[in-house]
């Protein structure tokens, strides 16, 4: 490009209106804004980064492109995590000090490592510790990037692997001490490869993180040196599987599992810390799941080159003392809110009993305090209710925690109804999540999202106010979104509560208790079928919408079709519905494109053909009870559903 030239340094070039020139190699030279080059100019081999004209506009566009691929809620200080648990003041001091010592002085260890695995049973406060460590590291300038997985709350990207590397790269690019050298190279990588975000995670790590670091040759910041910095990955065991659905994919191929994706992330991080250009320490927090422990076993115990260090949250860190401080502080806050409580309430013996029941589980302490603070009854009555719960003498900590969950549910006005709603929400949420294909809404496509709390309430209510009866007493377990946030899901404060809901043995206590509001069905699936049938027969929610606006109608309809029967078009006029709710709702694609006011007319006039390989087609009217229809079709292997044109009723 530059021929027959005299020697000239880049910083001496001051010309206008020429084409851009960018060279990536040992030196990085960027002339932007249309600077006009001369045929008699020679660029020296020294490394320069010269930005003129519209280069800042180009970089801003690349930042936006990278930001679009970020799991925004996974950052430690995201708005989505505003209520995330943190260590209470003066608690978990010992474990935090050990982590900080490893971050700042780990090179002085007898066997230095660049990766720390923080692990422990459910409820031991791993996420709270990681959140507090991330805050402190950011304050001290030690934090490079974070990713907080969550399988039970927040945005879908927080439970999948696909945004991990891009989220880390974005934070590195934004870091004040890295933006000038590392950050610009990250953005150049984004601009150089339009298909980068569709590549495998390993390739993304190479191109977005490792290659930019390698080109810096140790000069990461403006001063040429880098303060010790750390990358924090929390909740790795909550990363769920990300399936690719290809029409030509063989049915015999074994599908990926969440364990595969979690091990893939671990492998990529281990390869990164082995790269000499990678200057960061990495902290990974997770439960001690078998496959994760197996992965770490050799890397934490190798006699000559242990690559990782394990920090297990056990009695060594004296959790009982920290839980005692937590209870003392929280009860003091409650006393200040209620003047009628005596200054010694509830007494040291009561606190000691609560600490014993907690058995080192901070989630028990947090849930118990949340229940005491529930405004449905005075705090002393709420506390007395918890103290009266009985546990087996040989009960393990997890059983005691589950007994607390059962006790809180039993405190609701209609416990069977509450449990039924919880399990129905859980099953429908999983149905949406497991359908990893794009769900169509008219001509547009979107990824599966969490089930809307507003929509679920409208689908489930048979009487006005039933939702308040069912779930209103669970504020210590669930965060309820504002009524005007139609798209927001329920957020469960701790994963162990979802583990409890998924344990079928925990539902036995509900079978002998009749519901005061409605009669429970034999299982959750028939109940969902009945609610779907009622919605169809009512041509909308059984309880009229309040407010009854076009926006609310349209949103309910848009959620109703894919939630109760996510589907995809196989061929013109033929739709396949996935299990387990494949046979629940026949849906006609044309309904999606209609205006809300046309919905009720369509629901009352459509007819469908349900068929399988062996059975003859059965004509099913939409206004017929879906529950009765399914009994008639019991045993049929329904594979396809073909829509007929609207016909006249007979």
TrEMBL record:
<dbReference type="Pfam" id="PF24883">
    <property type="entry name" value="NPHP3_N"/>
</dbReference>
<keyword id="KW-0677">Repeat</keyword>
<dbReference type="InterPro" id="IPR007111">
    <property type="entry name" value="NACHT_NTPase"/>
</dbReference>
<dbReference type="InterPro" id="IPR056884">
    <property type="entry name" value="NPHP3-like_N"/>
</dbReference>
<protein>
    <recommendedName>
        <fullName>NACHT domain-containing protein</fullName>
    </recommendedName>
</protein>
<dbReference type="InterPro" id="IPR027417">
    <property type="entry name" value="P-loop_NTPase"/>
</dbReference>
<feature type="domain" description="NACHT">
    <location>
        <begin position="114"/>
        <end position="238"/>
    </location>
</feature>
């Amino acid at each position: 490009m530059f021929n027959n030239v005299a020697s000239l340094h880049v910083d001496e070039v001051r010309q206008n209106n020429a084409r851009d020139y960018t060279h990536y190699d040992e030196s990085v030279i960027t002339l932007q804004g249309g600077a006009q080059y001369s045929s008699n100019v020679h660029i020296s081999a020294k490394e320069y980064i010269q930005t003129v004209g519209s280069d800042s506009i180009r970089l801003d566009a690349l930042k936006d492109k990278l930001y679009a691929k970020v799991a925004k809620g996974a950052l430690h200080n995201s708005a989505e995590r505003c209520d995330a648990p943190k260590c209470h003041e003066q608690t978990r001091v010992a474990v935090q000090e050990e982590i900080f010592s490893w971050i700042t002085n780990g090179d002085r260890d007898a066997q230095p490592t660049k990766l720390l695995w923080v692990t422990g049973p459910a409820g031991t406060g791993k996420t709270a510790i990681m959140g507090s460590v991330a805050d402190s590291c950011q304050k001290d300038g030690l934090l490079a990037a974070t990713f907080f997985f969550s399988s039970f709350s927040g945005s879908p990207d927080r439970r999948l692997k696909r945004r991990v590397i891009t989220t880390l790269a974005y934070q590195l690019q934004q870091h004040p001490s890295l933006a000038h050298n590392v950050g610009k190279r990250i953005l150049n990588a984004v601009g150089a490869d339009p298909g980068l975000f569709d590549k495998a995670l390993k390739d993304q790590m190479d191109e977005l993180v490792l290659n930019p670091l390698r080109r810096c040759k140790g000069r990461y910041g403006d001063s040429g040196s880098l303060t010790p910095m750390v990358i924090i990955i929390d909740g790795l065991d909550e990363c769920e599987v990300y399936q690719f659905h290809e029409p030509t994919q063989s049915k015999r191929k074994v599908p990926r599992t969440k364990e595969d994706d979690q091990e893939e992330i671990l492998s990529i991080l281990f390869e990164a810390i082995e790269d000499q250009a990678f200057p960061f320490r990495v902290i990974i927090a997770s439960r001690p799941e078998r496959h994760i422990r197996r992965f770490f076993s050799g890397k934490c115990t190798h006699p000559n080159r242990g690559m990782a260090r394990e920090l297990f949250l056990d009695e060594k860190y004296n959790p009982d003392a920290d839980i005692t401080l937590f209870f003392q502080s929280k009860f003091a806050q409650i006393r200040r809110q209620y003047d009628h409580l005596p200054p010694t309430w509830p007494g040291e013996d009561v606190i000691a009993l609560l600490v014993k029941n907690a058995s080192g589980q901070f989630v028990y302490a947090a849930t118990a305090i949340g229940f005491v603070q529930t405004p449905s009854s005075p705090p002393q009555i709420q506390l007395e209710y918890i103290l009266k719960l009985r546990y087996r003498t040989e009960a393990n900590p997890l059983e005691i925690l589950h007994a607390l969950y059962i006790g809180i549910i039993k405190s609701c006005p209609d416990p069977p109804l509450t449990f039924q709603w919880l399990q129905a929400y859980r099953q429908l949420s999983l149905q949406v999540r497991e359908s990893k294909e794009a769900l169509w809404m008219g001509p547009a496509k979107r990824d599966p999202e969490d089930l809307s709390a507003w929509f679920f309430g409208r689908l489930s209510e048979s009487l006005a106010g039933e939702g308040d009866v069912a779930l209103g007493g669970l504020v210590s377990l669930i965060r309820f979104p504002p009524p005007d946030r139609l798209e927001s899901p329920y957020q469960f404060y701790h994963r162990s509560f979802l583990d409890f809901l998924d344990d079928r043995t925990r539902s036995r206590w509900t079978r002998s208790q009749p519901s005061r509001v409605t009669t429970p069905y034999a299982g959750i699936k028939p109940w969902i079928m009945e609610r779907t049938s009622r919605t169809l027969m009512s041509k909308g929610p059984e309880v009229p919408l309040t407010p009854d606006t076009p926006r609310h109608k349209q949103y309910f309809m848009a959620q109703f079709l894919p939630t109760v029967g996510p589907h995809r078009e196989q061929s013109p006029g033929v739709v396949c519905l996935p299990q387990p709710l494949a046979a629940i709702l026949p849906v006609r694609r044309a309904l999606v494109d209609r205006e809300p006011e046309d919905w009720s007319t369509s629901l009352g006039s459509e007819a469908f053909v349900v068929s399988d390989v062996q059975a003859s087609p059965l004509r099913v009217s939409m206004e017929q009870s879906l529950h009765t229809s399914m009994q008639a079709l019991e045993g049929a292997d329904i594979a396809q559903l073909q829509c007929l044109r609207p016909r006249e009723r007979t």
